[in-house]
Design goal:
The complex is a heterodimer of chains A (528) and B (334). Chain A has 16 helices and 21 strands. With 528 residues, chain A is an alpha+beta fold. Chain B is built from twelve helices and no strands. Chains A and B meet through helix 1, helix 7, helix 13 and strand 18 of A and helix 3, helix 5, helix 7 and helix 11 of B.
Chain lengths: 528, 334
Amino acid sequence: MMSFARSLFLVLLCTFVACTRTPRADVVVGNGPDVRSLDPALAQAVSDARVLSSLFEGLVTPDPDKGVPKPGMAERWEQVGLRWRFFLRADLVWSDGTPISAEDLRWSYLRYLDPATGAPLGDFLDSVRGARACRLGQLPAQDVAIEAESPRILGIELASADPCFLQQLAQFPLLPVPRHVVEQHGSAWTQEEHFVSNGPFILQERRLKDRVRVRKNPRWHGASTVRSERIDWLALSNPSTLLNLYVADEIDISMDVPLSAVPTLLAGGAESIGNELRRDPRLAGYFLRINVRAPGFQDARVRRALSLMVDRDELTASVLRGGEIPAATFTPPNIHCGGLPFVGIAPPSATRQTILALLLDGLRAQGLHELPLFELSISTDPVDAQIGEWLQQRFQSFGLRCRILALDGQSLRARMSSGEYALARSTWIADFDDASNFLEVFAGGASTNRTGWSHADYDALLAQARRATSATERLTTLIAAETLLLEESPLIPLFHLVSRTLVKPRVRGFHPNPLEWMNAATLEVTRR
Amino acid sequence: MTFLPALLTFVGLPLLLFALSRGRERKGSLRAASRLKRAAWLPLIVLAVHGLAFLVVHAVPGGPFDAERPLAPATRAALEARFGLNESLPMQWCRAINGVAQLDFGPSLAHRDHAVSDVILEGLPASLLLGVGALFWMLALGLSAGVIAAAHAGGHTDRWINLAVALVQALPSFVLAALLLIPFALWWQILPVAGLDSLSALILPSLALGLPFAAQVARLVRTAVLDALSQEWPRTWRAAGLDECAILIGAMRLALVPVTAFLGQAAAGILTGSLVIEQIFAIPGLGAHFIESALNRDFTLALGLVTLYTTLAALCNWAADLLLPIFDPRTEGA
């Protein structure tokens, strides 16, 4: 029990601290919402990933430019059949000087798989033999095929071939955690006074709803390449506040810009900060899920007709106006498949008569004359409201009756999970650059599916792609899978997201990429 | 698990205070009896509001572990067991209220590295600073504008002040915030845009928060001062040779009665109004936590904050009631 006197003292102390002026860091990044946790296994958002990647280094490191991960803690690796062997660098130490061994990494991965850890993104090791069963609580951790062959060699055996294994291994939830600190302090290991990491930076300060300040880690093996002494990751979820701070020159990079401000910024001309606005394609899509069990939506023709009714060009050009890319396919146009460009085949556009005929055919097949009144579930976000109203008008122009239901995010997800919806807005953000990361969302029985739709041929194509022996075979199989997905239309793709960032010209080492990943080690500000 | 702390705080303490109040009443000390009775209601109010909030947060659809990618059943079960969400709702409430009695609100479900008490301790100073700043503006601007308007009643100054007061009261706080931000922070850049890196960063948000309340105080003071000046005593004072300044000070003292009565209500309003202002000015206070905890179904944090705000609002009203007799002895024992 915390005594009243202690609470009062702490409040007064914090008030004093709150009044003291914080000196500016070398680079200030308006990062987005508060970091959910400094424990990589518990983190969830892209904004979390940026902070954690500055503090930790994984076995392999994402390289968004090349698509294939580059060496991290492992200086090299080899693959023989289903067995991978990772050779660790000789000079790996935690920021407190404790050496890191392959056994530490094994322990960290098994901790990530343990259901008791509660990792929200817990499936990145699913291709490892025994890992999936372990995270589902069906197999003890020691039976997972991850072993420390020596202090510097980590062996991992896969259950089946996985062309995306390395990319999954580079994901932030798999960043290693310091076993010696976790075992000593339990869940309190992420507190400032205990925190230990192994990346380019170490934690200096963390204030909720304010910032995470990191400083250079002199013990990191690549410390000589780190360009800045201190970086501030500001925890600001309101993009308008970020824009204000950017205009007032109080931050160097803003990772979000209000959608409504984009046209104004662009209209400002070359001399304005609109010139500093970047709109880079992301590997992320905005779409509508269709509940195939809802009355009238059981027939694929009805769903396809609804998809054909949407004029994506008008939506992005007239309603959003933020540079979003109209989506004719579920997979974004800049995605790859085993290193090869993935080009999804968009369904051909149709005339109004064709769409109505398709709709009627689908309805008649279900014994209906018209589509019953249906609900379009959206979030309470103002942009969602704009999109929802535009879609409602669009559907009404084809004689359909559509009602908008605005819900907060958690209520919307709850309704989708329980199947209490007809159409619902959704987004999907890729973890890595591979088309399978999108297409697996709608696999039959996948928890991410939520539409009630499953198709044996689609699942067979996904399975065939997983087994494919060549990149070309995998590419053609996944293209066929997406074509089938769009024919069946358990979803209506609307647009592909872009990252809206503002970057001061004085910033060096900022490399925009579709995964919004950031290499903090290369960031620097050349002139203040 | 023993629920002794909850029983002592929410049953034993009110009963004791009611008994003491009855004893004072018998001894004829009505003022002390009234204060004790009000204090006895405080834990009961907190208990009732907490119970209501508990029902509301559990009645809305969605849970803290719902995400775009659903959790594996084993992971969800492990998390629910860890945070006690697998127990029956009455048991969860009993545990929560027992925690409140010990000032332990449990771990936050969204801020996984923090306990709710830590979140509150970290955010409360900023929110309190903002609230105190707003109260300062409320009293400083409200009192002076009210007295000046009353002193120039019917004149140009009075009309301009009335216009400004009406304007400030009509504008929502986020519009006021923007009107202050644009010139001071963006055009002239003399004050910080956001954050709480220095005390100067407190000026704009506290002003945006305090101005609507200052407008209300100005109206109250103007009316009260004019009312006081229309009574008999100013004439007597003038006849006794006292100057206008002394009379105005006397009228101001009387005007403090409605202002003090308004303080409790204003403090509660400032607490809830800060939610929006904190978001706009990125003040690392409790406002954003309050909104986000509700949206993220962070049950423990939401209940902790509801309890805190209820207690603060009740305490402010209680304090205002205690202050009132100082300025108006007629309210003694009321």
